[in-house]
Amino acid sequence: MTDKLRIGLVGCGGMGNEHLKLIARIPHVSLVGVCDQREARAQRMRAQHQVQAWLDYEKFLDEAKPDIVHICSPSGLHALQGISAAERGIHVLCEKPLDIDLKKVDRLIAVCDKMDVRLGCIFQRRMSAAAGVVQRTIAEGGMGRILSCSVSVKWWRTQHYYDKDDWRGTWALDGGAFSNQGIHSLDQMIWLAGPVAEVEYAHLETASHQLEAEDMGIVVVRFANGARGTIEVTTCCQPDLSTRLEIYGTNGSAALQDATVVRFGLNGEDLMHTLPPKMEQTGGGSDPFAISLAGHDAQIRDFYAAVREHRAPLVDGREARPSVELLTMIYAKAFPNIKLGV
Ligand SMILES: NC(=O)c1ccc[n+]([C@@H]2O[C@H](COP(=O)([O-])OP(=O)(O)OC[C@H]3O[C@@H](n4cnc5c(N)ncnc54)[C@H](O)[C@@H]3O)[C@@H](O)[C@H]2O)c1
């Protein structure tokens, strides 16, 4: 690998555009190519970033020869595109979720291991230092036995949002509110409370939009450590209400709004003043791109450092997998006959 990391990106839509703005600000890297199957989008990024553009993904990998590829394509393409890159020895930084098909996620992790390339998944809320303190406190037993962890994601998406890109809300490439909007909170709850052993109840439905998958749902889970929780996710809530996670154990409790810790105490003492300053991260409650990019920036920089230092990134494939596993369990409970993925 040369001194400057060679960066490529597939998927020049909304999120790809945001990644490209961030990549341009990072020193010692060079953007060597972008790829999008829609010619107009590929050409627009070519003009904006003065970089070569490809329509065909495999050709792009072979000709641009990046060290790292950012995958910002529809969620159901992530694992197969990641596998193609990893098989060529290219490191993979993937937007959330790692994929919507757990079997493909496992293949992606296995190929990355075999080829000794780094695999990262963007879950930007994990970059909040204050949330990290809460997570470590829980992991070290400071909150006692965890009794409950619940999340609520009450967001709004217009019908136009689902109509404007043909992959949105489809079982093949996206899934619904749980896999697209809710996945951040599924990851966050597993990060804090540990793996989910069982989805005890799941009611998902398409309530107020036209899409194949769900736009609202309520789920009850039992964690492997015995704790209980509920997960409520919707894109039907206008105006959108905040994204909330609440967790409590025998010795304390915490509440997070998006990535921001808004309540934290142990043994009857309020510990909010002990937390590091908050990182500005908002959640895209009504507009997917009305998010601050501080978390993305931190995660991309960590991933580049992980490649240079030959270490795992902060959110690697194994860290990102349990959210897809939980998603799979929820969909299996609610829709036993649905096949997710291409
Ligand atoms: N981390 C976050 O907060 C966040 C926010 C929004 C989106 N995302 C994720 O980013 C990903 C992309 O979402 P988006 O909103 O940018 O979607 P988008 O539709 O705006 O962009 C996707 C792009 O991929 C291109 N594409 C589709 N198939 C392709 C193929 N086979 N080869 C090359 N290009 C192909 C499309 O033409 C499109 O330009 C999704 O997985 C989504 O979950 C993450």
Q: Spell out the helices and strands N to C.
A: EHEHEHEHEHEHEHHHEEEEEEEHH
* Ligand list: nicotinamide-adenine-dinucleotide
Mean pLDDT: 95
- Structural class given helices, strands, pairing? alpha/beta
Q: In total, how many beta strands? A: 14
CATH-derived architecture of the largest domain: 2-Layer Sandwich
Distance between the termini: 33 Å
Largest sheet: 8 strands, mixed
Number of helical stretches of at least 4 residues: 11
| Amount of helix | 25-40%
The total number of structural domains is 2
Structure overview:
This protein is an alpha/beta fold and about 350 residues long. The chain has two domains: about 5-125 and about 295-315, NAD(P)-binding Rossmann-like Domain (Rossmann fold), CATH 3.40.50; about 130-290 and about 320-335, Dihydrodipicolinate Reductase, domain 2. The chain is built from eleven helices and 14 strands. The protein has helices at about 15-25, 40-50, 55-65, 80-85, 100-115, 130-140, 160-165, 175-180, 185-195, 295-310, 315-335, and strands spanning about 5-10, 30-35, 55, 70, 90-95, 120, 145-155, 195-205, 215-225, 230-235, 245-250, 250-255, 260-265, 270. The strands form two sheets. An eight-stranded mixed beta sheet has the order 8-9-10-7-11-12-13-14, with helices on one face. Strands 3-2-1-4-5-6 form a six-stranded parallel beta sheet, sandwiched between helices. A hairpin with a 2-residue loop joins strand 13 and strand 14. Helix 4 (about 80-85) runs parallel beside helix 5 and helix 5 (about 100-115) runs antiparallel to helix 11 (about 315-335). The two termini are about 35 Å apart. The model has no long low-confidence stretch (mean pLDDT about 95). The site of nicotinamide-adenine-dinucleotide has 26 residues, from helix 1. Nicotinamide-adenine-dinucleotide (NAD) binds near residues 16, 38, 72, 73 and 77.
